[in-house]
Amino acid sequence: QVQLVESGGGLVQAGGSLRLACAASGRTFSNLAMGWFRQAPGKEREFVAAISRSGVTKEYAASVKGRFTISRDNAKNTAYLQLNILQPEDTAVYFCAAKYRLYGGTISRPSEYDYWGQGTQVTVSS
pLDDT tens for residues 84-96? Predict the structure, then answer.
């Protein structure tokens, strides 16, 4: 089993920044492919960003590319999502997800992830 705990959400004005963290425990972190998703009220959960086990390969949704940066620190068992130039449409609950694997790169489909955190709220005011 893998436990994921997100932190770092909050209220920020448009144009501001936040850094989300996802602390993992339970399995070898360097064997976890990690992803971030978000869900706004009344909408489906959508892919935001993903990172491979080594951190070399990264993937982003078109809507956040150039503004958000995913990273990981395997020594700290933590993945991060840096959110810059935030806009009101970025308001959502942000979830991190993990999949234990011994091969492969990034994963963008939520159905492929095995473990999910509880989510952290990001609210961007205009």
Answer: 999 999 999 999 9
